[in-house]
Write a structure and sequence with these properties.
- The chain contains eleven helices and 13 strands.
- A six-stranded mixed beta sheet has the order 10-9-8-13-11-12, sandwiched between helices. The chain has a four-stranded parallel beta sheet with strand order 2-1-6-7, with helices on both faces. A three-stranded antiparallel beta sheet has the order 4-3-5, covered by helices on one side.
- The longest helix is centred in the middle third of the chain and has 16 residues, at 117-132.
- The protein is an alpha/beta fold.
- It has helices spanning 15-20, 45-53, 66-74, 94-102, 117-132, 137-147, 161-165, 171-179, 203-215, 235-247, 261-267, and strands spanning 3-8, 24-26, 29-32, 35-38, 60-62, 81-86, 108-112, 151-156, 182-189, 192-200, 221-230, 253-258, 272-278.
- β3 (29-32) and β4 form a beta hairpin.
- 38% of the residues lie in helices and 28% in strands.
- The chain folds into two domains: 3-148, Rossmann fold; 151-278, Hypothetical Protein Tm841, Chain: A,domain 3.
- α3 (66-74) packs across α4 (94-102).
Length: 279
């Protein structure tokens, strides 16, 4: 059975993995300084940070439109099945647009990942794994949908500046939190982002606290794979987190990836997430 796997650009997997597994990508649009860019293609995260530091507004992100999805799916009309992974439907209209486009084809199945960033990426990699084992498209879709509530995603944020500039919080909230050196942990729960723990301390100390708290409950996760995603972090700090995870000697595969423009636009630099699938 010839199965094609495609996904929105928000899956935040390393480019080498996307190329290795021949995953087709549909890019969201990033609007910065009155210009539109294709996520992961025309703009890099550091370009956004430089622009915001220079006084630009935080960029806006736009969903993939129906016509763009039709163009994507049209390329694979000769496949037995196309399984497309969309950004969570509560985060973007991309999912609804993908469904509308898929209705024009008999071979396209759209999965609402109910997630973002490498949380969606974990599901894509699982689908690749099942395809390589020879499972049918229906079997893959059924297995993936059973995993949706088990995807565990959280990020620790260093600055609330991007959320404030994006209108998600007020300036007083930002000043209060940052003056007390509090680092919020944002989790995805039932398809929505929610602020969970508040970790107090320097960036380094808070990152390690966040990491240790997750590893204390590592047995709740499937040991197959863990993803460490960051939006731009000092390499020495990143290495400390990676080493902590490796020292746990629990996960068979640890993937380190740079979060793309969509998540970074909302979180800003020095954000780090640890993502896995629960048993």
């Amino acid at each position: 059975m010839k199965i094609k796997i495609s996904a929105d650009s928000t899956i935040d997997l390393p480019k080498e993995l996307i190329q290795k597994h021949d995953i087709a990508i549909s890019p969201l649009t990033i609007s910065l300084n009155n210009k539109n860019y294709r996520d992961t293609i025309d703009i890099e995260v550091d370009d956004i940070y430089q622009a915001v530091d220079a006084g630009s507004e935080v960029p806006k992100t736009s969903a993939v439109n129906v016509y763009e999805y039709i163009q994507l799916f049209e390329q694979f009309k000769d496949y037995d099945k196309v399984i497309h992974f969309s950004l969570g439907s509560l985060f973007s209209s991309s999912h609804q647009n993908a469904l509308l486009a898929a209705s024009e084809f008999e071979n396209v199945e759209v999965i609402d990942t109910e997630n973002l960033s490498a949380g969606s990426g974990l599901l894509v990699l699982k689908a690749v794994e099942l395809r390589e084992k020879g499972q049918s498209a229906d079997e893959i879709v059924t297995e993936i949908r059973s995993l949706l509530p088990k995807v565990k995603v959280s990020f620790m944020v260093d600055t609330l500046e991007y959320m404030r500039k994006g209108g998600r919080i007020g300036s007083l909230t930002q000043q209060s939190v940052e003056s007390m050196k509090i680092h919020p942990v944002i989790s995805v729960v039932n398809g929505k982002m929610k602020i969970g723990k508040l970790i107090h301390g320097s960036l380094k100390r808070s990152l390690l606290k966040y990491c240790v708290a997750i590893l204390e409950n590592k047995e709740k996760f499937s040991s197959d794979r863990l993803i460490i995603a960051h939006s731009g972090l000092d390499q020495a700090l990143l290495d400390e987190v990676i080493n902590k995870v490796k020292e746990a000697n629990y996960f068979d595969e640890i993937i380190v990836t740079r979060a793309g423009s969509t998540i970074s636009t909302h979180s800003g630099p020095n954000t780090l997430g640890i993502l896995g699938i629960l048993k």
